[in-house]
Amino acid sequence: MPELSPGRRLDQPRSQARFRLNIDPDSFGRFTERIARFLGTGKYLFWQTLIVVVWIVLNITAVSLQWDPYPFILLNLAFSTQAAYAAPLILLAQNRQDDRDRVSLEEDRNRAAQTKADTEYLARELAALRLAIGEVATRDYLRSELDRLREDLDVKPRKSRTPTGS
């Protein structure tokens, strides 16, 4: 009986694809984000404008080099191809940013909930301390009681002490 290969399962059909292209989604996503960021820069616009101007000037003036005569169909095809690739790349970058924002928002919510719980705990502890301090004699309370006792002692007549003969 033939041995099964280590990763093969009997409850799943064999894959028909002999050639698989394994692309790491994170690496591809980072690559597309870099392209999308570059497409939105002034540097890209400058170079694209320069290429288009050179393309048009060469096709109008250089009669022997006219690879794309006046309606510039090849240039339009290049722009269409660029737009066909740029739009999905930009959308992919936006989706990745949305995912990051969603994770960040969830972390912020968790942090806010923890901060609220900590604040409520500290408020309860502070209230408990205030109640406990209310039952303890404070410095002001002791001072007022001592002042009242001193006044009471000053008001009452003092008994004169006479030295007893020994």
TrEMBL record:
InterPro entries according to UniProt: DUF1003
Q: Which residues cross the membrane?
A: 44-67, 73-93
List UniProt keywords, sorted A-Z.
Membrane, Transmembrane, Transmembrane helix
Name it.
Integral membrane protein
Q: Tell me the organism.
A: Amycolatopsis vancoresmycina DSM 44592
